Amino acid sequence: MMEIPVIGKVKPSLPWFLGLTTTCLILIGGTTYAILQSSRSKLDIETLTVAATEQNLSVEIEASGRVEPVRSVNISPKEPGRLVKLLVEQGDRVTTAQTLAIMENSEQQVETSRAAAELRQSQAGLSEGKAKIEAEIVRARARLQQARARLQQAQARIPRDIEQTKAQIDAAESRLELVKERRRRNQYLLNEGAIAQDTFDEALNEYQNAQATLTELKQRLQQLQITGDSEIAQLEAEVNEAQTDLNQRQQTAAAEIESLQATTDVSQAALERSQIQYADTIVKAPFDGIVTQRYAVEGAFVTPSTSASSTASASATSILALAQGLEVVAKVPELDVGQLERGQKVRIIADAYPDSVFFGEVAQIAPEAIIEDNVTSFEVKIRLVTGQNKLRSKMNVDVIFLGQELEDTLVVPTVAIVTQKGETGVMLLNAEDEPEFKPVNIGLTIEDKTQVLEGLEAGDRVFIDLPEENRSGGDE
């Protein structure tokens, strides 16, 4: 029996062994690469994505500002002059109408005294003139009243006297008829010798007396009728004259008093003008406040060119600067101003007091923007609630406007927000672990977080950075 040499058996086994070895190495390398690639992919996804979460957000808007007076004014005299006295110092608190300074006013004092003397003289003349005119009117009115009384008496007396005289005439005529008949009977008796001559003479004498009385009464009646009309006419003329005199006196009185009053008014105006000029030399505080600057010294000549200026810089023509109250004026970017409203609470931190927190509230939001270095912002005035006694005018501060509290709102990192073809969205991790653009509706952006109103759910993972193969030069 023939044995197969050993070397002949080994030669056909070597290629097979090498192939087997190569296959094993390929399998091991592929498996290792797959495992490493899978691990690296998972690592990249964890690093490049974050999950959308529900959080509570406090809306806070930060801005810089400065402490400013609520009211500020440079105080100057109304008329140019020399400053005689300055009664306050920088830092003094003053009240409304308090005297702050006195300008040179000797000429105004003399003029005021002279005007006051002239006014007193005019007022005395007016009083005396009124008294004299009123006395003349009283006398004229008394004369008129007396004339009217005499006229009324005459109008009542004369008709009464006429009636009485007529009655007396009637009685005298009756008596005359009676004694005439008696005389006739006595004449008959005398002719018959029945009576003595003396008895007849008595009857005759009685008859003659009755005739005389009647004649006298008729004459008196005639005189009363004639003189009565004349007397009444005369009295009426006196009444008319007295009335005319009173009317003229009243008319001239009004003109005379008006003239005297005009003179007094002129004197009064001159005094008031002089008093105003004198008062203008007394510089008073227009409101309660604190003296922030003192620009002039006693003896300096000061002009009114910057009177009531609102500028805070020193001026050679101002006496001092007065400020009232403190507030913070902050500049808020245009994008944030829509989230502010009056009464909103504010935290204030001053550079001078870094460890203290002061509080205020929004008092006013400017209706017009300010553009500085191409940056648009709005001035917001903040009323101080605390810090009035520590903060000082012109201090720099940081302010934080405290807005509404958003509870359980969906947020993602702000860097995850992208735009694609003009549409806002995020790059969402899809089922193939690839970034996919997803449109979203965003809300507020607070610090590094942005509120997502629609388009995502809690737990959705969004890319905060894209893998190398998905990066491009810009938005599509």
Strand content: 25-35%
Overall pLDDT metric: 83
Tell me the overall shape.
Answer: elongated
Q: Could you name the ranges where pLDDT drops below 50 across 5 or more consecutive residues? A: 1-12, 35-41, 306-315
Structural class determined from secondary elements: alpha+beta
Outline the biggest β-sheet: 6 strands, antiparallel, barrel
Tally of contiguous helical segments: 5
Strand arrangement, largest sheet? 2-9-13-11-10-14
Distance between the termini: 84 Å
Secondary-structure element series: HHEEEEEHHEEEEHEEEEEEEEEEE
What key phrases describe this protein's structure?
5 helices, 20 strands, 4-stranded antiparallel beta sheet, 6-stranded antiparallel beta barrel, alpha+beta, elongated, 476 residues, disordered N terminus, 45% helix
What is the topology?
Blueprint: H1 6-10, H2 14-48, E1 49-51, E2 53-75, E3 81-86, E4 93-94, E5 99-103, H3 106-192, H4 197-280, E6 282-284, E7 289-294, E8 301-302, E9 320-333, H5 334-337, E10 345-350, E11 353-365, E12 370-372, E13 375-384, E14 396-413, E15 417-420, E16 423-429, E17 435-439, E18 441-446, E19 449-454, E20 461-463
Antiparallel strand pairs: 1-20, 2-9, 2-14, 3-5, 3-8, 4-7, 5-6, 7-9, 9-13, 10-11, 10-14, 11-13, 12-13, 14-19, 15-16, 16-17, 18-19
Helix pairs in contact: 3-4
Question: What's the short story on this structure?
Answer:
With 476 residues, this protein is α+β, with helices and mostly antiparallel strands.
